[in-house]
């Protein structure tokens, strides 16, 4: 398992993944896209002609899925109407941006040579320009928030996670959470120079 480093000449962030690691990242990004696209949080709201033209038909209530609620927290918890209006005008674009970022992770891996069915012994060399690296960093954050929410990870509970037996599925998912965090940390260093 290697993290990202900065390429001396190009300044790009580079790493090499095994086919298994690259496929795991592709799977996490795909699951994130699916989650972002599947839950409908919109309700019919009376609108005027200008709003119809600009399509402000975004979600107005907090998502039911706890991961989506964590990714899109309520902006004004003390004012339900203001929160609904804010969400209506912003959440659709935020969802689209997060989904596009996850799609960039997938596209980058596939452009680097990740086949539809990973092969043993295959290595994938990834090179990220600064803009793509920032997109990956945001996607890593989204992936880690999703995993942390599903597992119930809280600050300061490392001892619990490290005490789980290796064959516990939660321990295995926590290892993925840690790995994505490691990738994120090394990518930050590679981008920062």
Automatic annotation (TrEMBL):
<protein>
    <submittedName>
        <fullName>DUF2017 domain-containing protein</fullName>
    </submittedName>
</protein>
<dbReference type="InterPro" id="IPR018561">
    <property type="entry name" value="AosR"/>
</dbReference>
<dbReference type="Pfam" id="PF09438">
    <property type="entry name" value="DUF2017"/>
</dbReference>
């Amino acid at each position: 398992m290697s993290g990202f480093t900065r390429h001396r000449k190009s300044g790009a962030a580079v790493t090499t993944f095994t086919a298994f690691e690259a496929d795991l990242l592709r799977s996490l990004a795909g699951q994130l896209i699916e989650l972002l696209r599947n839950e409908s949080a919109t309700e019919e709201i009376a609108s005027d002609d200008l709003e119809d033209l600009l399509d402000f038909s975004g979600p107005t209530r907090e998502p039911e899925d706890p991961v989506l609620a964590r990714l899109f927290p309520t902006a004004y918890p003390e004012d339900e109407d203001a929160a609904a209006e804010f969400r209506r005008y912003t959440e659709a674009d935020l969802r689209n941006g997060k989904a596009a970022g996850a799609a960039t992770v997938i596209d980058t891996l596939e452009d680097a040579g990740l086949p539809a069915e990973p092969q043993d012994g295959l290595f994938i060399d990834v090179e990220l320009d600064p803009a793509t690296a920032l997109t990956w960093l945001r996607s890593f954050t989204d992936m880690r928030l999703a995993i942390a929410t599903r597992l119930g990870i809280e600050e300061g509970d490392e001892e619990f996670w490290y005490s789980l037996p290796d064959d516990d599925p939660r321990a295995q998912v926590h290892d993925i959470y840690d790995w994505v965090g490691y990738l994120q940390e090394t990518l930050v260093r590679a981008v920062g120079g």
